[in-house]
Design brief:
The chain has 7 helices and 11 strands. It has helices at residues 4-18, 40-47, 145-152, 159-164, 174-183, 197-216, 275-285, and strands spanning 23-28, 34-36, 52-58, 61-66, 69-74, 80-85, 94-100, 104-109, 116-120, 257-261, 264-268. A hairpin with a 3-residue loop joins strand 7 (94-100) and strand 8. Bound molecules: zinc ion (ZN). Zinc ion is lined by residues 249, 251-252, 254, 269, 271-272. InterPro entries: DNA_glyclase_Znf_dom_DNA_BS, FPG_cat, FPG_Glyclase, FPG_N, H2TH_FPG, Ribosomal_uS13-like_H2TH, Znf_DNA_glyclase/AP_lyase, Znf_FPG/IleRS.
C-alpha cells in the first residue's frame, strides 16, 4: 500500500500532468469506487466543466482541487493514475476516466478495486469522513516531539499499531513504521508508557528523517507501486529492515526477524530492538 512518501510522489507528478485541465466528461466503469455522492452519475455530472487547479495531500489521501469542487482520492492497495491520449485503448482494470477538453484523459486503474473517491464543496472535505478524523502530518511544523509524546504516551497499545493508526499520525504504513522503529532502536511491541525520554526523542527524529528521505527518493517501489507518471520510486534500496528477513542487521549483524504485530508482518533486529532491554531501561528511569 502506498504510504506518505509514495502518495506525495504521486501528488507531485500529477500536478505536472493535470493542473489547468478542464473536464469535458467523466466515465465511471466501477461504481463502488465512488463513495460520495452515492450516485456515480451525479459524481460524473458534477465534475463537467470544472478545471483542476492543483493536487494536494492529506495523510495518504490525494486532494484534487478544482474550481469549486474537491475530489478526495485514496489509492488503497494498488490504485494508480495515468494520463493518456483519449483515443488510446483503455487498459484492463481502469475504473474511472476523466476526459479533458484537450483530448487527454486522466485514468484511474486499480487491480484490487479498494480505492475510493469522495467529492466535496471546497472546505467541506475537512469536516467529514474520510479526512475529518486524521491526525498530525509528520512532515509539517506541528509535528513536534512534545505533540507526538502527548498523543501516544498514555495509550493502552503497543507502539507499532499506534503509529499505524491514522487518527494519531498520518501517512505511516507498515514499511515506514518498521524502518522508523529500527532507526530509533525500539521494539515494535513496546508499550508507549515504557518508552524513555531519549527513546521518544529518537522515535520523533526517526519518523521525520525516514519519511523525508523516502520523499526525496520518490518513494519505494514495492509490488506494483509506481508514481503518477509510471516511474518507480527508488527508496526500496535504502530500506534497512523491511523485506530483509534473515539478512544481517546493518548495525550489529544479527539476523533480522520477521513476526506478526497486530496482524501485520513486522521486521526488526532482536538485538538492536530488544523488548527486554526496553523494559529494564524503563524501570531504571522510574
Ligand atoms: Zn541489530
Amino acid at each position: 500500500m502506498p504510504e506518505l512518501p509514495e502518495v506525495e510522489t504521486v501528488r507531485r507528478t500529477l500536478i505536472e500532468l493535470v493542473a489547468g485541465k478542464k473536464i469535458a466528461s467523466v466515465t465511471v466503469r466501477l461504481p463502488r469506487i465512488i463513495q460520495k455522492p452515492a450516485d456515480p452519475a451525479q459524481f460524473a455530472d458534477a465534475l463537467v466543466g470544472h478545471t483542476i487547479q492543483t493536487v494536494e495531500r492529506r495523510g495518504k489521501f490525494l486532494r484534487i482541487v478544482l474550481d469549486g469542487l474537491v475530489l478526495v482520492s485514496h489509492l488503497r492497495m494498488e490504485g494508480r493514475y495515468g494520463v493518456y491520449p483519449s483515443e488510446e485503448d483503455v487498459e484492463l482494470h481502469t475504473h474511472v476516466l476523466f476526459h479533458f477538453e484537450d483530448g487527454t484523459d486522466l485514468r484511474y486503474k486499480d487491480v484490487r478495486q479498494f480505492g475510493t473517491m469522495h467529492l466535496f464543496a471546497p472546505g467541506d472535505e475537512f469536516t467529514q469522513p474520510p479526512l475529518s478524523k486524521l491526525g498530525l502530518e509528520p512532515l509539517e511544523e506541528g509535528f513536534t516531539l512534545k505533540e507526538l509524546r502527548s498523543r501516544l504516551e498514555r495509550r493502552k497499545s503497543r507502539i507499532k499499531p499506534l503509529l499505524l493508526n491514522q487518527e494519531h499520525i498520518v501517512g505511516l504504513g507498515n514499511i515506514y513504521v518498521d524502518e522508523a522503529l529500527f532507526q530509533a532502536r525500539i521494539h515494535p511491541e513496546r508499550s508507549p508508557e515504557s518508552l524513555t525520554g531519549a527513546e521518544w526523542s529518537r522515535l520523533h527524529e526517526a519518523i521525520v528523517s525516514t519519511l523525508q528521505k523516502a520523499v526525496d527518493a520518490g518513494g519505494s517501489s514495492i509490488k506494483s507501486y509506481v508514481n503518477g507518471q509510471g516511474e518507480m520510486g527508488m527508496f526500496q534500496h535504502q530500506l534497512l529492515v523491511y523485506g530483509h528477513k534473515d539478512e544481517p542487521c546493518p548495525t550489529c549483524g544479527s539476523a533480522i526477524h520477521k513476526t506478526l504485530v497486530g496482524g501485520r508482518g513486522t521486521h526488526f533486529c532482536p538485538a538492536c530492538q530488544s523488548l527486554k532491554a526496553g523494559r529494564k531501561m524503563a524501570k531504571a528511569a522510574e
